Amino acid sequence: MMTGTLGRLLGHGITVAIALVAVPTGALAQFGGSLFGGTQQLAPPTPPGSIPNVPPSGPPVRLAPPPALQHHPAPSGQNGPQVPAGQAMLALAARFGRDNAQQITNGLIWRIYPARPESMRAPRPIKEDKTAAPVFTLPPGEYVVHVSFGLASSMKTVSLRSELTREVFELPAGGIRLEGRVGDSRIPNNQIWFEIYRGSQFDTGERSPVATKVAPGDVVVLPEGTYYVVSNYGDSNAVVRSDIRVQTAKLTDVVISHRAAAITLKLVTGHGGEALANTEWTVLTPGGDVIKETTGAFPRVVLAEGEYRAIARNEGKTFERGFTVTTGVDSEIEVLTR
């Protein structure tokens, strides 16, 4: 569970197993359940006048700790700062959307560009800030303002005069935080990683991931919409694809269940014997598809539940054995040299 401000604001939950079941879980009820909060538990499925080349905000994920969202009203026009003579001032803020006045108070990157660049090359920002509600002092004129929040962004042209101008940007974005499990056991962070794609896994056409190498516990901020997650447990065939829904101003904890186990392969001269070094291994399906090739005395391979055949080659000789992988049952598979 989360603690502090984030925990108070993001604690309201949705649990999704095979059927979708809404389960209120925390203090978010006072905000009507509209802020980051929720859990999706996913079992394996059965069968983006603009500014070009806006520089990225850095890695779009790994907001650790996640952005601390607080309930602040959007800035008003009262009690504004004094505008220097011959200058203009621009006060900025961002919120989740027209229907959600929640101000975003962390994780923002603001960039100011000239509206009419002096060269044909991609313009560089003339001002940049990472605070929640910056105030810029600029000569009067037109500018392009770009704000990013994780992978969500917004941009607009503003015209500044010798006065204070206030602009509130709307970023309909939410977040997901991922975790993998086998049964009731959490998969260690160094054994699992995730990729996130826009749309559903069942949509046609090739797509590039919007986020790669996402580690468990990373908060990925995305524009509201449908995405699918590819969960990779190990580096063989333990892969699960799951559709998720990112909702504005909600952080959703996604628990992806793998039906897999870790298998250690050993080539031995007798049961319980010492593993032979410099052994080349190939793991096949019953149909002959190669799942994994590796070399070593006792390589560890994560495999999806099912039937396999291990082939070991050592000193010019070949040995093999069939075996079964059962979900959650990590085991050693000995291949005998006789």
Q: Give the averaged pLDDT, no decimals.
A: 80
Main beta-sheet strand count, sense and barrel state: 5 strands, mixed
Within CATH, the superfamily of the largest domain carries the name Carboxypeptidase-like, regulatory domain
The assigned structural class equals: mainly beta
Strand content: over 45%
What's the number of domains? 3
The stretches of 5 or more residues where confidence is low (pLDDT under 50) are 1-35, 45-78
CATH topology of the largest domain, by name, is: Immunoglobulin-like
Shape: elongated
The Cα radius of gyration reads: 26 Å
So, CATH architecture of the largest domain?
Sandwich
CATH class of the largest domain: Mainly Beta
Structure notes:
With 338 residues, the protein is mainly β. It has 3 domains: 36-47 and 173-257, Carboxypeptidase-like, regulatory domain (Immunoglobulin-like); 88-170, Immunoglobulin-like; 260-336, Sandwich (Immunoglobulin-like), CATH 2.60.40. The protein has one helix at 4-9, and strands spanning 15-16, 20-21, 39-42, 88-97, 100-103, 108-114, 127-129, 135-138, 141-149, 152-160, 164-170, 173-182, 185-186, 192-198, 211-214, 219-223, 225-233, 239-246, 251-257, 260-268, 280-284, 290-295, 300-304, 306-314, 317-325, 331-336. Strands 3, 12, 13, 16 and 19 form a 5-stranded mixed β-sheet that branches. Strands 4, 5, 8 and 11 form a 4-stranded mixed β-sheet that branches. The protein has a 4-stranded antiparallel β-sheet with strand order 7-6-9-10, with no helix packed on it. A hairpin with a 2-residue loop joins strand 24 and strand 25 (317-325). It is elongated and about 90 Å long. It starts with a helix and ends with a strand. Residues 1-35 and 45-78 have low confidence and may be disordered.
